[in-house]
């Protein structure tokens, strides 16, 4: 018997279905029963009277794995109602063909044949050796097994962390306690060290002194333009050397309140910059 699935898939039946039939002599009439496939087989001969067993056709009574209830399809209100129920309950909706409504024994036999056909579809679906999900699970399991069996890889030794330069923190504290004149004196000393490192092409020493000057600059007014002074001191050209001297002189002038002299130095600095 060929079954037609109006809801659900014949390749993947749900195991429970609304099975319906039509009657050629009764247009619009629909007869239906409910089919269930069992995960556990049972021996129906214990419960079926002998006089009824002869009407069950080829149904395997001793190894029952599926059944229809009611055994004889009953008339239902409409096909639309069956569709609604199948959607609501998540059942397969299966058409078993046409039948004769006046012959109860024949109706039961036809329903039994449809149950057997539906049960076979369920068995075929369960007998599939590998579904996509099972295949994916097997692949993951195999990969995990290979990973666990693989020899452990040596973990790279962590690189030693660089110890922070505590001298910078010390300088921060020292500079914070210095007077402005002392800070400018320290700035002059650092500039001398920087010029010596630059002239000797000692980049490491030059970078170290530059960091110290940057720290010191945070403790001096921005108007002193220590950053511009530092940039000029990093260059060993004659022009940059003159700029550095003008900048440091300007810092001292501003520190003692000689604004006019500082302004004149600004003009000289700008003149040197324009010559670049």
Describe this structure as you would to a colleague.
The chain is α+β, with helices and mostly antiparallel strands and 276 residues long. The protein folds into two domains: 4-126, no CATH class; 166-274, no CATH class. It is built from ten helices and five strands, in the order βββαβαβαααααααα. It has helices at 50-53, 79-89, 104-126, 132-149, 166-177, 180-199, 203-217, 226-233, 238-255, 259-274; strands spanning 4-7, 16-22, 30-42, 64-76, 92-98. A five-stranded mixed sheet has the order 1-5-2-3-4, with helices on both faces. A hairpin with a 7-residue loop joins strand 2 and strand 3 (30-42). Helix 5 (166-177) crosses helix 7 (203-217), helix 8 packs antiparallel against helix 9 (238-255) and helix 9 packs antiparallel against helix 10. Mean pLDDT is 80; it is low at 129-136.
- What percent of residues adopt helix (DSSP H or I)? 40-55%
Shape descriptor reads rod-shaped
Overall number of strands: 5
Q: How many separate domains?
A: 2
Brief account:
The protein is of the alpha+beta class and 276 residues long.
Secondary structure elements and pairings:
Elements: E1 4-7, E2 16-22, E3 30-42, H1 50-53, E4 64-76, H2 79-89, E5 92-98, H3 104-126, H4 132-149, H5 166-177, H6 180-199, H7 203-217, H8 226-233, H9 238-255, H10 259-274
Can you give keywords for this protein?
single chain, 5-stranded mixed sheet, 10 helices, 2 domains, 5 strands, 276 residues, alpha+beta
């Amino acid at each position: 018997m060929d079954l037609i699935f109006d809801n659900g898939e014949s390749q993947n039946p749900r195991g429970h279905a609304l099975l319906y039939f039509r009657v050629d002599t009764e247009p619009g009439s629909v007869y239906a029963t409910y089919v269930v496939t069992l995960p556990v087989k049972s021996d129906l001969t214990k419960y079926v009277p002998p006089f009824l067993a002869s009407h069950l056709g080829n149904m395997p009574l001793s190894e029952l794995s599926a059944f229809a209830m009611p055994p004889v399809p009953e008339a239902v209100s409409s096909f639309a109602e069956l569709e609604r129920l199948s959607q609501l309950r998540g059942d397969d909706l299966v058409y078993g063909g046409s039948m004769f409504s006046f012959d109860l024994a024949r109706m039961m036999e036809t329903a039994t044949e449809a149950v057997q056909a539906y049960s076979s579809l369920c068995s075929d679906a369960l007998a599939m050796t590998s579904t996509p999900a099972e295949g994916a699970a097997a692949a993951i399991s195999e990969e995990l097994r290979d990973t666990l069996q693989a020899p452990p890889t040596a973990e790279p030794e962590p690189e030693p962390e660089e110890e922070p330069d505590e001298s910078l923190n010390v300088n921060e504290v020292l500079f914070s306690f210095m007077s402005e004149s002392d800070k400018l004196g320290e700035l002059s000393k650092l500039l001398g060290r920087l010029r010596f490192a630059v002239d000797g092409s000692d980049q490491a020493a030059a970078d170290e002194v530059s960091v110290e000057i940057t720290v010191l600059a945070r403790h001096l007014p921005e108007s002193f333009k220590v950053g511009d002074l530092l940039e000029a001191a990093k260059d060993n050209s004659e022009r940059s050397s003159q700029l550095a001297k003008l900048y440091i002189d300007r810092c001292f002038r501003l520190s003692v309140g000689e604004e006019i002299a500082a302004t004149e130095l600004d003009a000289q600095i700008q003149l040197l910059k324009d010559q670049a």
